[in-house]
Each structure stands twice: as C-alpha cells, then as structure tokens.
From TrEMBL:
Stated name of the protein: Transcription factor domain-containing protein
Compartment(s) of residence: Nucleus
Main location: nucleus
Organism from which the protein derives: Trichoderma semiorbis
Keywords per UniProt: Nucleus
CC per GO annotation: nucleus
Amino acid sequence: MPILSELVGNNHPIGAAAPLDRDSDLLDVYPDAQLALRLWNVYVRSVDPVLKILHIPTIQSAVVATILDARSAQPSMVALTFAIYYAAVTALCHHDCDEPVDLSWEKPVLLKNYQTALDRLLVTPDFMKRPDVTGLQALAIYVTCSRAMNLAGQYGSLTVS
C-alpha cells in the first residue's frame, strides 16, 4: 500500500487532485446506509478501543448525518467516514466474530475502494493548505490502519490457533 507522500508525488500532485465533486465517482463507492451503520458499529466496538482518535459521543451525530446524506456533507467529514469504513473492514474477522457483517463486496475490493477515495480526498489542495481537525482525524485513522495492513501482510497472522 502506498503511503500518502508517494501518492502526492506520483498519482495526485498537489494542486491537480480534484476536490470532492458531489457528482463524482467517490460517492459511487460510498456504502449504503445499512452497511455504513454496521461498519460504524464495528469501528466503535473493535477499532476505537484500540485507536483512540475520535471522541465517539461528540462525533457520532455527525457520522450518522453523513451516512444518511454524504452528498451534503463536508469533504473532510466524508473522508472521516471513509477512514472509519476502511478501519472497520480491516478489523473484520471472518471467523470468531460476535456479529458477522454481510459485506456487499469482497473485503479486498472494499479496502481498495475506500483507499482510493481517501487518497483522493486527503490530497486535495484545500485539505493540504488548510487541514481541519476532522480531516486530520481521517488521515490518522487511515495511515494507522494502512500500516497495520502492511504489517499483517509482511508477518502474517500473529494470533495463535
């Protein structure tokens, strides 16, 4: 998985990345409300206890509002929800889960879609010049989970069977 600096240098030069266009294909990969709420639940239950970047009681209403109407949300809030979905999908286990989540696509496809959306959202000129707290939270979640995915791929599963 490329790191953000590689993306800025290679695929999305600063100033050339398109800002979030309400009709863009980014929102085409946005999950439906039912899946988004399930992924939010996975994030709150499995990711947040380990990765304390968000204050759940404060951000929950904004996340739910974005889930219900992503087209009218601020780009940084859309980026945060994509980061939440990315983190939740990375945290999903296919066996041993308390509550299995029925994904609309295969896990690698969802990860790639969410990664592509985050790459585009987080390198827009507006974000690079004037990042806000929500965008920085999205970036922190994304980078941390990307690193975890890379380590898992390099070293395999660290769980005992």
